[in-house]
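Quick illustration, no need to memorize.
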Amino acid sequence: MLREETVFGPIFSRRLGSSLGINLLPRNGKICNFDCVYCECGWNKDGLTDTQLPSADDVRKALEEKLKACQAAGTSIDSITFSGDGEPTLNPAFPEIVDLTLELRDRYYPKALVSVLSNATRCGEPGIFEALRKVDNAILKLDAATDEQAHLVNRPAKNYHVADVVKALERFEGQFVLQTMFLKGDGWGTEAWVSAWMDIVRKLKPREVMVYTIDRETPLQGLKKYTVEEMRTLVQPLLDEGYKIQIKG
């Protein structure tokens, strides 16, 4: 499900409400350093037809036009969300684009939140870290507690290590949202898997956790989704400890 526009929507998001999307990746392609088995945009190899990234000027023009149109139409926007076809922080202009987005948000929709959906692989880099600290919702992914589990579910690029990501996330001092996909499959989604993940949550102490499961067709066939009730049971220890957890089926 590739987005064809640099700015798209608003669409209804299970987690963010009325969400105006910003796609910092190609309009007709996909660029990501993960190749997740559940990605709604499909496999990376199927999105290679377009590699052109939008510039900061491209984003400014498209975003301002869309915000003006939404304002004139009385369209509500709860979140301006960096998502799109891959990992948004791979765009070299990401920090600059965050700044201009905050500026335009304040001008046209001051009550809207600015959110970033990221796989957290680059949040340890200085420019990326500072940009993510500026937004309202830095929603950072951690699906697995070990490198072996991550290779099953996320299929990351070389040199990915869960320990490195956890170390980078610690720098946020809890001021971020941890996002995790729960799947049933061969070798993942077990209670031991969830238990190890919960230990990382306790270490990071994010201000909120988003737990969700598949809602659309996935590139890897045979994946099974959890029910909300099943996910609630799995994370009940964290709920009992007072963690704020958003659970979406």
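Residues 50 and 217 are 22 Å apart (CA to CA).
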